[in-house]
Amino acid sequence: MPIDVPAIRRDFPILNRTVYNRPLVYFDNAASTQKPRQVIDAITGYYENDNCNIHRGVHYLSVAATEAYEETRKEVRAFINAEKVQEIIFTKGATESLNLVASTFGRRYIQPGDEVIVSIMEHHSNFVPWQVMCIERGATLRIAGINDRGELDLTEIGSMINEKTRLIALAHVSNVLGTINPVKEIIALAHRHDIPVLLDGAQGVSHLPVDVQDLGCDFYCFSGHKMYAPMGTGILYGREKYLEELPPYQLGGEMIRDVFVDHTTFNDLPYKFEAGTPNVEGVMGLRAAVKYLDVLGMENIAAYEEQLLEYATARLSEIDGVRFFGTSPQKASLVSFLIGGIHPYDAGMVIDKMGIAVRTGHHCAMPLMDFLKIPGTIRASFSFYNTTGEIDQLVAAVLKVREMFS
After folding, report:
1. Domains of the chain, with CATH numbers?
2. What is the pLDDT of residue 258?
3. Quick check: pTM over 0.85?
């Protein structure tokens, strides 16, 4: 069923504001999505009605806040179709989720001479933690390349797997190229060799239906703020057998069972990985965001955003000098491009003055920029609240940039 874009736009207060006396056009959704009124109200409602620490009190407010917090865990489990609720770990974002796995997986499983496979398209958050872990553990980080369309080569990844491979960590969707990687096929290949696979789902979960059991992944990491939820929220999904074996990541309240003067025992999943007072109000907002996306339907969102991507690609292709980076037919709704030899920062400043928010630079993917031999790109990333009319405004801004710098 098609989504009602005008009605959706009324849910997002920030879309009513102006920038430089122009209506805001927000095309920086890959960095962070805007928040619907339902999410904002959930945060306000928590502070006005149920503000309290969770899990530790027997009084009414603590019990109410705890029940709502744990209900969110159940709804996230259903949203990504995890098998068990204890496989859902709350974090402060994809970055913390990825660091949690890199740190604990390294301590538990990685020995000198072992290997971890990533790709050249990874966000720094799914590159640097593995790089540092490998250096510290005496292991080797192996990096899979991409073709001219920005796609991984299954044959190359297969050739990299050997008896030393301990993990493969890949983006579900590239934050620069938009490429939707063939992760299900890669996971099946890895599992034939008993190798676990982690997916950075920061760009996947807001654009695509995600079913972790169908994908078969062993870990899936994502941030709330890229899926219309508050900043400072995130999820680590981990297969129970791995989470049980991994050591704690942080130490403190909530993640302990008993503390003695000479030793400590740790809590059960998922609490073993949730030390300290959590971002309860953020999780209330995350719950509202999940409900919002469920009502719209991820299949409907994906279909509409594909239309936006096709329209933007066609319109920008009409402009002489525009070069795209990431041209796979399997893409999420973003375009990365350059305009002739114009530096992306210069172009971005002009586009900004026309009321349009795009991202410029290396997008936290410097190895990819080195691979492409460019300083960065202009990235326009689309949401279900964007319109073709807004894309037309972007096209006009790009033409203005070309005119100014010609």
Report:
1. 5-31+297-405 (3.90.1150.10), 41-294 (3.40.640.10)
2. 86
3. yes
